[in-house]
Design brief:
Strand order of the largest sheet: 6-13-8-9-10
CATH topology of the largest domain: f41 fragment of flagellin, N-terminal domain
Distance between the termini: 26 Å
Helix content: 40-55%
CATH class of the largest domain: Mainly Alpha
Order of helices and strands: HHHEEEEHEEEEEEEEEEHHHH
CATH architecture of the largest domain: Up-down Bundle
Number of domains: 2
Structural class: alpha+beta
Strand content: 15-25%
Shape: rod-shaped
Length: 404
Amino acid sequence: MRISTNTIYESGGARISDLQVGLNRTQQQIASGRRILNPSDDPIGSARALVITQTDAVNDQLAVNRKNAINTLSIAEDTLSNVTNVLHNVKTLVVSAGNGTLTDQERGYIANELQGSLEQLFGFANATDGTDAYLFSGFSSTTAPYTKTQGGAQYNGDQGGRFLQVDTSRQIPISYIGSAIFGNIRTSNGQFNIRPNPSNVGQTVATAAINVPTTANLTGNNYEVAFDNTGLNFTVTNKTTGVVVVPSTAYTSPQTVTVDGMDITLTNTPGAPGPNDKFSIQPGNQNIFETITDLINTLKTPTGNVQRRLELTADLSQANFNIDKSLSNVLMARTGLGTSLKELENLNSAGESMGVIYKQELSALQDLDYAKAITELNQNQVVLQAAQQSFVKTSSLSLFNYIN
């Protein structure tokens, strides 16, 4: 078969070009340290590497989320630790205030110290996570959980929560419902806590219920029903504001008065009220700010007679119960925080292990075997040189060379 000179040049040039491409590819692999430079080099390996890379990126992002969650929860736990210390101090002050040898002035000193504790608790309840997001306002991270009121403080957050994805199938709460921690102090099984004055001598009882048509008028304040020195007339006073909401009214059993969204009912059982009998009416569910505010007002009220000293003892007992309940709520929240932090620690450990596995798999798929690559490079160089020399010899096989 006759092979033309043109064919020799074309086939020789194409072969040398292919060898140069292979040599350049091996050099690029060595320079980059990667076996797969293009998907066409290993389609299956490239697809697998892409999946692992994406999974590893998600794992890295979850690790960042866990770090952020740990920071937020650590701040929350530290804040509640401070709240616990303040409540323990408040409880100590309540016990001290019950000392019968204290004067009104000395109880006033305790009230001033309690005012400082109240301000501390208010600050802790409105704590942020360091990024101006409130910890205890539920889902409303930009709304301050509590604002001061005359009777204590009002919760402005919601009942939701913010969560952070810390694992492929796990979300961790990074905000808490403030009313469940600083509120939720059940003083009664009913809607209101009715307490007869310890010095009452009559047999009348008081009950209270929400008046549904005027529910919007509920204030959450404390009220007092007081009979006069004849026991025939009574008044109702908003103790939080000091305003008389029901002026002196003649009493007949049973009798119901509606005030600020409440139906207050007085009934003989079977006897009538005694002179100067009193009943206090408080919300059946309080927050710690209302408890401490009531306690401060109690300690600032002079105890000039036996009746007032009995009221002081009853008020201190109620305050002590409320503080114990509040401590229980705070400790319950701290338990939840501790559980979440422990879970995050375990997830971090698992995430780090998975990260190592993903990187090992990627290395097996993508990383270059340098010994093999260098051997292949040397081989390609030898083959290329041989091809070039062969092409030179072959291209010189012409009759014109002999004519010359």
